[in-house]
Amino acid sequence: MSNVDEYYTEILRLVKQAGSIVREKIYQHKDVLTKSCDVDLVTEWDQKVEKLLIDGISSRYPDHRFIGEESTSSGQKIELTNAPTWIIDPIDGTMNFVHGLPYICISVALLINKITEIGIVYNPILEQLFTARKGQGAFLNGAPIHVSNEKELHKALVMLETGTSRDPEKLKIVLQNITLLLPHVHGIRSFGAAALNMCMVALGGVDASIEFGIHAWDVAAGDLIVREAGGVSIDPAGGPFDVMSRRTLCASSMELAQQLSKILIQYYPVRD
Ligand code: LIP
C-alpha cells in the first residue's frame, strides 16, 4: 500500500463520518453567522466538520498541512507549499445548508508538491460520493463517470454562479456574462456549490461550470475529478487553472472551454 493509498483510505473514513453530521443537521434549526458580508454564511457545523477532518488527519500525519475554509476565515493569507496539503471545504454550499436545500457537499483535496493526488466531493444528503485519484479516473459511488464530450457552445448547458460578493463591479460583470452567454447556449444553471457544479460536469449532467470569486477549497477537489473524468479545467481567460486564483472554468472539452472563455468578461478577485 503506497502512502497515498493509505491517506485515501483514511480521508474517506473521515469524510463519511463528517457526512453523518451534515445529514443529521441539514433540516434542523441552525444558528447562522456571517463572514465577509451579509450573505456569506457560516454555521457551527461548518466549523465542527472542518475540525473533525483536520484533527483526524493531523493525529495520524502530524507533518501534513491544511488550507481549510473555516480555519482561514479570520482573514490570514493562505500559503500553498510542497508539503502534503489538504484543501478542505467542510460544507460547500453553506447557504443551501442553511435553507435545507440538499445541494451541498464536503470537498477535500490532497496536494503533494502542489500536484493534486486525491479529490473527494461528498453529498451526504443525496448519497453522492465523487472520488478521483491522479491518473486513475473519476467515480460516482464507485462507478466510473465521464464528461459529456460536448464541443458545441449552442448545445451546452452551463453552470454560472453569482457568488456571495455584492461588490457592484463584480455584480455588473456577472450579469453581463449571463446576458452575453444566454443567447449562445442551451441554458444557464446556478445551484450554489462550486465543487458539486464541477462534479456535474464530470458526470456529464452539465457541459461547463464557470465562477469568479470562489476559493481554493471550493475547487481543488473538483478540478481533479473533472480532469479524471476526461474534461478540462482552465482559467476563465483560457490559460492554465490556478487553484489560488479564485477563478474557474471547467468543461467537457477544450473546444467548449475556449469558446466560453472568448465570450466571458473577465473578473480578477484578490488571490487566495
Ligand atoms: C460557495 C461556493 C459557491 C459560491 C458561493 C460560495 P461555500 O462556497 O460553492 O459556488 O457561489 O459564493 O463561495 O461558502 O458555501 O463553501
UniProtKB/TrEMBL annotation:
Molecular function as annotated in GO: inositol monophosphate 1-phosphatase activity; metal ion binding
Reactions accelerated catalytically: a myo-inositol phosphate + H2O = myo-inositol + phosphate
Cofactor: Mg(2+)
Residue positions binding Mg(2+): E69, D89, I91, D92, D218
GO biological processes: inositol biosynthetic process; phosphatidylinositol phosphate biosynthetic process; signal transduction
EC number: 3.1.3.25
Metal-binding among keywords: yes
Pfam families the UniProt entry points to: Inositol_P (PF00459)
Regions annotated as coiled coil: none
Pathway: Polyol metabolism; myo-inositol biosynthesis; myo-inositol from D-glucose 6-phosphate: step 2/2
Keywords: Hydrolase, Magnesium, Metal-binding
Family: Belongs to the inositol monophosphatase superfamily.
PANTHER family linked to this entry: INOSITOL MONOPHOSPHATASE, INOSITOL-1-MONOPHOSPHATASE-RELATED
Protein name, per record: Inositol-1-monophosphatase
Organism per entry: Acromyrmex echinatior
